[in-house]
Amino acid sequence: MVSTPTDSLRVVVSAARATLLRCERSHSRRTARPVVEVGIRRRPRHRCRIVVRVRLALLVPRRRDPTAPAVVHRTARVGLRLTPAQRRRCFGLLRSAGDVWACILEINNWRQARGAAPLAGYQELCRELTRAGSGTFADLDTTGARSVLRRFSDAWFAAAKRRAGGDDRGRFPRRRRLLVPLRWYHGTFTLHGRRVRIPTAQGAPPLWLRLARDPPYPAGQIRSITLIYDAGRIFLDVTAELPVAASEPGTAVDPDRIAGVDLGVIHPYAVSGPDGQALLVSGRALRAEHRQHLTDTKRRSRAVARRAPGRGEQGSRRWRRYRRRARRVEGRHRRRIRQAQHEAAKAVVGWAVEQRVSTLRVGDPRGVLRIDAGRRHNLRLRQWQLGRLIRILADKAAAAGIKMQLVDERGSSSTCPSCLRRVSKPRGRVFACAHCRHLGHRDLIAAAIIATRTPGGGPTAPRPAVPGGAVTHRRVGRHLPGAGRSRRDPRRCGGAGRLASGGPPCQPAGSRSLDKGEDPHNTTGGSGERLWTPH
Questions:
Q1: In the structure, what pLDDT confidence band is assigned to residue 239 with cuts at 50, 70 and 90?
Q2: How many domains does the chain have?
Q3: Looking at 443, 459, 475, which one is the last position of a domain?
Q4: DSSP state, residue 221
Q5: What is the pLDDT of residues 358-380, one digit of tens each?
């Protein structure tokens, strides 16, 4: 009996599969395993040779083992110290990523014109990228280009999910981007102290960048890096896989201890514990920062309104410098607010760990975002950044081993925790029950009611713990200018060159002076005495 090439190929494939199976049984996960590539090379005179290539690859599971220790992923933004040449190369990579994004949109437009379905799956997009060949997008390597494809696919399916849920505001990606972030995963980049090597296309010179500070995570726990442009600067987002913090002996969380969290504008987080303990986080500095930034932005806009180019006209260098400065100011404002929000969430999680709380039940007020309350109140709701507050608190709670649940908060501020009867919604900060004469802080009362509710609108828990113990007050935003006399805000009135925060209020033009010689009613005050009264 004569064996054919097909029979020989079957024998080789069977042997390769058996070898692979033995290797998988003898090695644990995340170990080296052989990957078998089988092919046929045809030669003249109808001869064929069977080629079997065995190479070593890293066996990384698609899913984590359920018995593995719990981990969380954290991302820190690190600045870069770049030379002009390195800065040009980084911008070139980000522009190449924008070209990949634009190519996907162009391909989908062509397919839509022919009546074909758009390309949205990650595997389909990767096949199109492979057909394009290497070197199509300048110095951009395949891993970086695939990260753009992953970002596009996630955005497309997120919009499809929102539309399937009945939300007509979900929009599919359709706009071109000049700069698109790039992500590289573990094994594709090199990190040595403060130096990192960014992978580039084959044949391109290596790109080494210098970090402005040491990464806040151990090198062995870093899983990916992302090159991103924000407000005129280039950053590197470092993502690490960190284990969940273990409790010290005697301080482990109690599964029966539940705390309620009420979200607000004046107090971003108001927490009520199971023993009557409470926490109030003041966010007045954040509100002042939003208002001062809005005032400063309007003043800048009015100052350059006459120099603004018309529609279709090219701006001058002076106008471009103003726009660059405006973007930097906007980015600085966002960083200040983000840092204060992280400080507030950290205070809540730290307090919960001290109280041995195992679950945080957070009232979900996102329904108010769908109500049109006028342009002024809508601006306050946007500046509230409710979704970010919830996300930051959930991330920090998960890192501390605390569960977080979203519950319905309707009627929590108008329900008495003592008699459980509904009262008129209080206008101020003080809650007063007309039935049992109970008095308390409005936000803490709401947090106590929220702690008794369950997710999904199910039956509530027993009578809530009435806030009556020690109330811990925390103030966030101490890094903001104007939060204290040691850090004056240059944006306040007083002239461009003066730092006039913390002094007497500015007098409008035409008002009377506070000088003794000009004010006939001012007959008091000597040298060194204060001649004004704060309001």
A1: very high
A2: 3
A3: 475
A4: G
A5: 899 998 888 788 788 888 888 88
